[in-house]
From TrEMBL:
GO biological process, one term: fucose metabolic process
Domain spans labelled L-fucose isomerase C-terminal: 346-472
Keyword Oxidoreductase: no
Taxonomic source organism: Arthrospiribacter ruber
MF annotations from Gene Ontology: L-fucose isomerase activity
Protein name as annotated: Fucose isomerase
Any Pfam family the entry gives: Fucose_iso_C
Length: 474
């Protein structure tokens, strides 16, 4: 349907069909029929007035607005966004009053029909070009946020409008998901990583909750699980089917499986959307393995997981996942790529989702192993990400200025030669040097998130327009 990757739940959109009584009735009737057919064809549930509820099913008077708002309120748990359709000039107050009364606080997309040069007589003209401006003016006055189509006016049969509609549904998913996101912070931030500090209070102000737990609780529960239990055997089967275990010893696989069970129990108990885990060095020193395999499996299953308790990193993973419908990965802006100013190496010791690693294998973390013993780092993943589209970005809390900010952009992942261990990729990004200057000058983290899509425009609209955050689009 609209999304690639994991199967997405069918969404519901409220629909307001604007009307003015001195325009031809046939224009409204035809628009209603066209829109219903379009939404059905792309598996979207449209919630709109019937032609028995109001004249032609449109919204024109205050009484119409009350009826439409009541309908929307009855479906407030399902509606993720509102479509405003203007087959003619429409009634600007009717649209604004409906949205005010319904008070759903969801994204709004405004579409106006184009006129035909041969049909500008009184009996057939639309004037939606002008009406759309009036509707937007009223919504602006009411403080209601809204989105616009690529072209000022367009027909539902126009491929541009179909793309606008698909992107709008993605924006709705991001906004709904972010406004109610629940992030698990598992363990304390590693002492050497001031870079991943963040403000829980700023996040909560935007509706994002952080649920904390001491790492010892997870490790303690994992240690109490019997190696011979049916639950462990089932989890071992999942791990073996997920990745090539390579030379990973049986004991390490048991450790990985039991911690995976403890983590998933915590996620289920707290209804978490994503997690950020203290992945080193306590896990290795006190438990004896890496948690990367579990994090990879969670991210692949659309429950993003980031290392080093990078809460805003995993929040970024979640946002990109909602925008694209496919998994995201937390990476380091790690190395230059030879002397090419527009290429760099993306790297992590090993927790990327399987979608990024066709040659995935459970291995060790050599760098970390130099201090904790490589035998205690089994569970890290090895693999190379092949060429694909790339959306990159980062959400961060700027505590000093009291705001949430982000940068996003697009590029490509390439197949350029790269000889190293861990999880690795080569990225080509236009004006990369300017981007690095922006990252450094504005105090962003060394972690960035990648997604195999081109969805920066969706994230920009959702995060800047509807979440109200400061967004830099590279």
């Amino acid at each position: 349907m609209i999304f690639k990757g994991k199967e997405q739940k069918k969404v519901s959109l409220g629909v307001i069909i604007g009307n003015r009584n001195f325009f031809p009735d046939s224009l409204v009737s035809k628009a209603r029929k066209e829109l219903i057919e379009l939404l059905n064809s792309i598996n979207i549930n449209g919630i709109l007035l019937s032609d028995q509820d109001t004249k032609l099913g449109g919204v024109e008077t205050f009484q119409d607005a009350v009826k439409c708002a009541k309908l929307f309120s009855e479906h407030k748990n399902d509606i993720v966004g509102i479509l405003v359709i203007l087959p003619n000039f429409g009634d600007e107050r009717g649209v604004a009053e409906t949205l005010k009364l319904a008070d759903l606080n969801v994204p709004v997309l405004i579409q106006g029909y184009p006129d035909d040069l041969n049909k500008l007589d009184v009996a057939r003209r639309r004037d939606a070009w002008c009406g759309k401006i009036s509707v937007c003016n009223n919504l602006y006055q009411y403080g209601i946020k809204y989105s616009l189509t690529t072209d000022h006016v367009c027909s539902p049969s126009d491929p541009k409008y179909l793309k606008d509609l698909q992107d709008f549904v993605s924006v709705c998913r991001v906004v709904r998901g972010m406004k109610s996101a629940r992030i698990g912070a598992i363990g304390a931030r590693p002492g050497g990583f001031n870079t991943v500090r963040y403000s829980e209070k700023l996040l909560q102000h935007s509706g994002i909750s952080v649920v904390t737990v001491d790492l010892s609780e997870i490790l303690g529960k994992a240690n109490k699980i019997d190696n011979e239990s049916a639950e462990v055997k089932k989890r071992l089967e999942l791990i073996n089917s997920y990745a090539n275990v390579g030379r990973t010893p049986a004991q390490a696989l048991f450790q990985i499986a039991k911690m995976d069970i403890a983590l998933n129990d915590f996620i289920q108990e707290n209804a978490l959307d994503a997690t950020a885990i203290q992945c080193w060095t306590s896990v290795q020193e006190n438990y004896g393995c890496n948690v990367c395999t579990s994090m990879s499996m969670m991210s692949e299953n659309m429950q993003p997981s980031a290392c080093e308790v990078d809460v805003t990193g995993t929040l970024t993973m979640y946002a990109m996942q909602l925008a694209s419908g496919s998994p995201s990965a937390l990476v380091d802006w790690n190395n230059n790529y030879a002397e090419d100013p527009e290429k760099c190496v993306l790297f992590h010791c090993g927790n990327w989702a399987k979608s990024f690693l066709p040659d995935i294998e459970i291995s060790t973390a050599p760098i970390l192993g130099t201090t904790v013993g490589e035998e205690n780092t089994y569970g890290a993943l090895s693999g190379r990400t092949p060429a694909s589209n790339l959306t990159f970005g980062r959400i961060s809390t700027d505590d000093v200025k009291g705001k949430i900010k982000a940068y996003i952009g697009e590029g490509e992942l390439t197949n350029d030669e790269l000889k190293t261990f861990g999880n690795k990729a080569v990225a080509k990004i236009p004006n990369l040097q300017d981007l690095m200057k922006y990252v450094c000058k504005n105090g962003f983290e060394h972690h960035v998130v990648m997604n195999a899509s081109h969805s920066a425009h969706i994230l920009e609209e959702a995060l800047e327009n509807y979440m109200g955050w400061e967004v830099y689009r590279h």
